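We give the entry.
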Amino acid sequence: MMRSALCPFVLAFVALLVGGCGSNDEAIDEIPVQKGSIGCLEYEIKDHIVTITDCDPSIAGKLEIPTTIETRPVNGIGQHAFERCELLTNITIPSSVTSIEVSAFRGCRSLTSITIPDSVTCIGDYAFAFCNSLTSITIPDSVTSVGEAAFRDCRSLTSITIPNSVTSIGLGAFLRCSSLISITIPDSVTSIGGEAFLKCESLTSIAIGNSVTRIGNDTFRNCDSLTSITIPDSVTSIALGAFKNCDSLTGIAIPDSVTRIGNSAFESCDSLTSIAIGNSVTRIGNDAFRSCDSLTSITIPDSVGSIGRGAFEHCTSLTSITIPDSVTNIGEGAFQNCSNLTTVTFLGNDPRKGWGDTFGGATVKLFDQAPSEKPIAATPPAKSGKKFPSSYKELMFGSNPIVTDKDKAFWEAAKSGNLEAVQRLLSEGVDVDIYSSTIGAYFGCTALFWAAKYNHKEVVQFLLEKNAYIDAGVGMGGSPLHIAAYEGHPEVVELLISEGANAEAKTVDGETVFDFANEEIAALIRKGIEEKQK
């Protein structure tokens, strides 16, 4: 920076070496640059273009940038030219200027007003960032792009006019403009960068133009006062955290043009009571509507194929939901801690993943169009007349047992390896294959599964002697053999194989025991199979 506000007029000629775009052997052109100072300003002239490059930081009050220097028009405000000129209150930019470069007025904390002339086409990254006293600004019709963080932390800015000429709003362009009340994004804008309006805490309404195709990551996150927003039909995706923590947003309509709702897109929108999801959405992302405490109903369209992990977790006002037959994948905990959710209507085949922890232990009434219960596959030979669910759908919609406290004690005894308690409870009439259909941690698991998981070989042996179904859990989360291999219990694996466990049986994800086994256990399983085939 310059050291004095009254600098003598000095001219100096220097050479700027610019390398070519090809190999190192290409000729290097010398581009002459003339540098000088006038009053409190420094400038450079390059190819007859005059750019203001620096200013004395002690300059205070109003400043008028000259229209010409050395008979040439001033064309640009260079990078960092007025950065941290904290005493400037008003700046007049001449109509000859076409560009305001990176951080040109960054940190001008006393600047209250500035007029951008119609000649400017580009506002660079951080151009007016941290201008804390700037209350309003009008962007002229000539500007086509607003750069990254261009007005970031302009905390006194209450209004801004974006003209129809602007096609893109950069990353964090208005981040933490905490006094901004409303904004209209014109039809010319096709791209809104991530975090563009993040933490605009006073923003109550937004009008998004009809050319925007994507709402980026965290674009309107933490806009606490935002009560409504209209998403135009041009938008195809709503990205990560786009409206997260918009606490005052009460309702939203997602148009048919949108195909994807990103992770955490509407997470913690505490006042959101209803959502209309368009008929083109194929995926609802992880945590998309997590902790929307006031959400009472939602309709999931037939286009949705996947509901992500925790998508509706902690939606405590949600009482019922219908899952269409298009859904094939529901992530873990998708409806966990929905404390008032009592009814789920499921219209399709069982999703390929996730049902085991979907409701996080909640007891819900599940309805299906075609409840079914099929005899288990006979490998090894099934018990006469014995039925056991072979899929999550059968487990949820079939005729399941009522679990008693004694049944739960039986599972706990198997988990802890308490053989005496296991024997006693069986003698008191507990079914050796009792399983839980309450969706949660015990979903579809038998005592044999738990004994195998926790490496209690003696309990496994005893349960098998009592005719426990050895492949319980096949087609769902996994059988006793799957879990023993996963946990790395070679003796239990060897016992199960010797007693006829099906090594080719698959989980709901299509995985066999070999997908879980380490090399030692995989070799043990192959050896056991070979010995049985002799």
Summary: The first strand starts at residue 11 and ends at 18. The CA atoms of residues 426 and 432 lie 7 Å apart. Residues 1-28, 350-357, 360-386 have pLDDT under 50 and may be disordered.
